[in-house]
Design a protein that fits this description.
By secondary structure, the chain is of the alpha+beta class. The chain has one domain: 2-Layer Sandwich (Nucleotidyltransferase, domain 5), CATH 3.30.420.100. Helices cover 42% and strands 18% of the residues. It has 4 helices and 4 strands. The protein has a 4-stranded mixed beta sheet with strand order 3-2-1-4. A hairpin with a 4-residue loop joins strand 1 and strand 2. The protein is globular. The N and C termini lie far apart (40 Å). The relative contact order is 0.19.
């Protein structure tokens, strides 16, 4: 197996996990979905109302608020900061309860750090 084939297979397995979870996890107006995406260098979080198809709040390691406080989104410390930022943004918009969607990624490392920081900052899930 070549490296490209292994990477493609890894992406396909994540997409399958994503589809399996998305059947059960759906955001509503009362309890929107907190979706996490990570790449090697950055991490992104969105709060989504799936019924309307709207993003209600977003934070990432590319945002100005993040850049003024940290350098890298590719580590656990960056993920914690993004978790605090998304919780702050959600609370400012009156959102307190969400459904967590790890988006097919393992609940470990940066994904777990983002979730824990969002909980500590006041989001309930």
């Amino acid at each position: 197996m070549t490296v490209e084939m292994k990477e493609a297979e890894k992406r396909e397995r994540r997409k399958a996990r994503q589809r399996r979870v998305r059947k059960k996890v759906q955001g509503t107006a009362e309890r929107p979905r907190l979706s996490v995406f990570k790449s090697a260098k950055h991490i992104y979080a969105q709060i989504i109302d799936d019924l309307e198809g709207r993003t209600l709040a977003a934070a990432s390691s590319l945002s100005q608020a993040f850049r003024s406080q940290a350098r890298s989104g590719g580590n656990v410390e960056g993920a914690k900061l993004v978790g605090r930022l998304i919780a702050q943004e959600a609370l400012n918009r009156g959102i307190q309860r969400v459904v967590f969607d790890r988006n097919g990624f393992l609940y470990h490392g940066r994904v777990k750090a983002l979730a824990d920081a969002a909980r500590e900052a006041g989001l309930e899930f």
